[in-house]
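Thread title: Can someone regenerate the structure for this chain?

I was given the following input by a collaborator and told the matching structure tokens would be attached. They weren't. Posting the sequence so someone can regenerate them.
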Amino acid sequence: MTKVSTNQHINHSDIAIFANEVVNLPKEDADEYRAQAGRLCGRLADHIQANPGFGLVKMLQAGSIAKGTALRTINDMDIAVYVRKEAAPSSERDLVPWITERLREANPNLSPDQFDTSEPHCVTVRFRGTGLDVQMVPVLYEGASHDFGYLVDKYTGERTLTSIPLHLEFIRKRKNKNPGHFAQVARLLKWWAQQRKLEDGNFKCKSFMLELITAHHADRNMVDLSHYPSALEIIFSYVVKSGLKSRIAFIDYYDATRLPKNTGAAIEIFDPVNPDNNIASHYTEEDRGQLVLAAEEAGDAVSEAAVAFTKKQALECWQVIFGPSFGR
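Best answer:
Regenerated them for you:
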């Protein structure tokens, strides 16, 4: 396991305090969001039980809140809405309006204006009290085990085979092996990426991709996740040295022989539950280059902070990574 040296100016404890006070979604907020989403799921379950043959099957909480990797800045939550494929409208453009009517039927306590259908591939339910937006993303379901179904991407409308329970189990396994630290390193990386997106609207870096890069390191004992400065420096260094040209995949739920041969994609990071889904398939060479360059800048900043003569110099280095809120 690779380790790096850091000095006393900015240490692991400083990063952990910053994460707790600025980066992490507070537990009480996460619990409230999950409970709110849980009530939505419960009302649908009751409605389905009372109405056999109803077109919707179930709802499952998904995304970073469900996985425990959410940032404090989050204002929406994903819920997968499982739809009987044979009951769904044949036209793609009719799917979201059709789902919306059934969700309204199952949730008469919600006013019609709380259902936002302005996005073409998902329904957003807005809660005024918490300010939380719940994005209801359809999954076309045919009764497969482990709740495998075809997720309709909320941005592109593309259909991708997925399993929400197995995704959650995949992350939970890594969290159990590195209690507290796996999720924290993933959140710190996601915060870093968020700062880059604020600086450059064209910067691309999926949160799920960062979770999988963290898992790749954890699985191979490439990093000590319990020491945040070292963990971040090593992961940034990996991105730079590999150029993100090295394939990342996992064998929790399928054999490696099921992975496709070289796809020609700029980045290959495969979904742990679907060997045909490269989650970075839409990244261009330019996107990859920008991501590698950003990681190089961040890695250099960690290294410089470790040898800084003053705390002010070390603080400025970490602000390159985490933004101006660090150390304030």
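Strands lie at 56-62, 76-84, 115-116, 123-126, 133-141, 148-152, 159-163.
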